[in-house]
């Protein structure tokens, strides 16, 4: 982040994730967190940066309560009277240009349109570039499979319809987590991580963890999140698994599992990362603990 000295970034660069602000109460808390972060003075630096990812939830919220309306009014005030020493960056997949918030952004902010892939070929190139930036190669067939899974058409559509960029990004992040340490991702890796569109069993994730099968556990986690399950609900399910199963089946892994649960809980509460990524990391850690203690034997 060029606005802030690299050595001071930990104090002056704050990241907020708005993807889960789907209710009035969450929106109120989220806007309050943004305002506090923006109004905080920089430390030993002339500038501070606040980055809000998945900001489309914030920019086009469901105003289901008076409190949510007041929160959006507070956010509008922040846009109209920004903090001179803080740069607020809103990262969104798409914007509704008819909204009041968009008109405020046009008036008071700089809008940079990065564009998005229009078809499978473009999305596959995006996947390849994203993975290369992380130092990983991918088979061309695997990149195209991810693009197709995210709904990108074979060729650009006259009606402007395109695929789900948010889902594509999530699939790539999940693939990077699964293939951690690999230099090349194969089509088989993609098949392991990228799953169907419907969830059959609410306990399939915990069952996969019991078997130490990280790819299947990650796939089931993604299906539940895509189906609308709250991260807090899924964390509670994983907490039950650790409390009920680990003491007998994997006692040596219990302290690490409890620590991972506590860390994830704290990160979710303080928006310390994308909830999806935080839960994926926890699932992988729990699977590793299972395999380290029990091998392939079922609990």
SSE blueprint:
Layout: H1 9-12, E1 13-17, H2 24-39, E2 48-53, H3 56-59, H4 66-80, E3 86-90, H5 100-108, H6 120-133, E4 137-138, H7 140-149, H8 165-178, E5 184-185, H9 187-193, H10 204-210, H11 214-226, H12 231-249, H13 254-269, H14 275-294
Parallel strand pairs: 1-2, 2-3, 4-5
Describe the fold and architecture.
Helix content is 56%, strand content 7%. It has 299 residues and is mainly alpha-helical. The chain has a domain at 6-108: P-loop containing nucleotide triphosphate hydrolases (Rossmann fold, 3-Layer(aba) Sandwich), CATH 3.40.50. A 3-stranded parallel β-sheet has the order 1-2-3. It has a two-stranded parallel ribbon with strand order 4-5. Residues 294-299 have low confidence and may be disordered.
Summarize the structure.
The protein is mainly α and 299 residues long. Helix content is 56%, strand content 7%. The protein contains 14 helices and 5 strands.
List keywords for this structure.
disordered C terminus; Rossmann fold; mainly alpha; 299 residues
Low-confidence stretches: 294-299
Q: What is the CATH first-level class name of the domain at 6-108?
A: Alpha Beta
Largest sheet: 3 strands, parallel
CATH architecture of the domain at 6-108: 3-Layer(aba) Sandwich
| Oligomerization | single chain
Percent helix range: 55-70%
| DSSP helical segment count | 14
Order of helices and strands: HEHEHHEHHEHHEHHHHHH
**What is the arithmetic mean of pLDDT?**
82
Spatial ordering of strands, largest sheet: 1-2-3
CATH overall fold name of the domain at 6-108: Rossmann fold
What is the rounded distance between the termini? 47 Å
Strand runs, count: 5
- Beta-strand content bin: 5-15%
Can you identify the CATH superfamily of the domain at 6-108? P-loop containing nucleotide triphosphate hydrolases
Shape label: globular
């Amino acid at each position: 982040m060029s606005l802030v000295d690299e050595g001071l970034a930990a104090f002056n660069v704050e990241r907020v994730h708005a993807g889960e602000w789907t209710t009035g109460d969450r929106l109120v808390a989220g806007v309050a967190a943004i305002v506090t972060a923006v109004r905080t003075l920089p430390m030993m630096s002339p500038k501070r940066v606040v980055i809000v990812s998945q900001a489309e939830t914030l920019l086009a919220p469901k105003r289901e309560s008076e409190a949510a309306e007041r929160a959006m009014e507070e956010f509008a005030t922040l846009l109209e009277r920004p903090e001179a020493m803080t740069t607020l960056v809103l990262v969104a997949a798409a914007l509704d240009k008819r909204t009041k918030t968009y008109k405020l952004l046009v008036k008071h902010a700089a809008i940079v349109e990065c564009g998005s892939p229009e078809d499978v070929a473009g999305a596959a190139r995006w996947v390849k570039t994203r993975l290369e930036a992380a130092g990983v190669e991918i088979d061309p067939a695997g990149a195209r499979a991810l693009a197709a899974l995210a709904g990108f058409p074979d060729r650009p559509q006259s009606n402007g319809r395109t695929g789900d960029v948010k889902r594509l990004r999530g699939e790539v992040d999940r693939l990077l987590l699964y293939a951690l340490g690999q230099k090349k991702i194969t089509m088989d890796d993609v098949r392991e991580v990228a799953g169907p569109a419907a969830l059959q069993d609410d306990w399939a994730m915990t069952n996969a963890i019991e078997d130490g099968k990280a790819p299947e556990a990650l796939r089931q986690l993604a299906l539940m999140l895509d189906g609308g399950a709250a991260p807090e609900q899924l964390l509670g399910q994983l907490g039950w698994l650790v409390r009920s199963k680990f003491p007998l089946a994997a006692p040596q892994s219990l302290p690490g599992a409890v620590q991972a649960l506590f860390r994830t809980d704290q990160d979710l509460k303080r928006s310390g990362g994308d909830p999806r990524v935080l839960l994926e990391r926890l699932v992988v850690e729990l699977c590793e603990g299972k395999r380290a203690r029990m091998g392939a034997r079922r609990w």
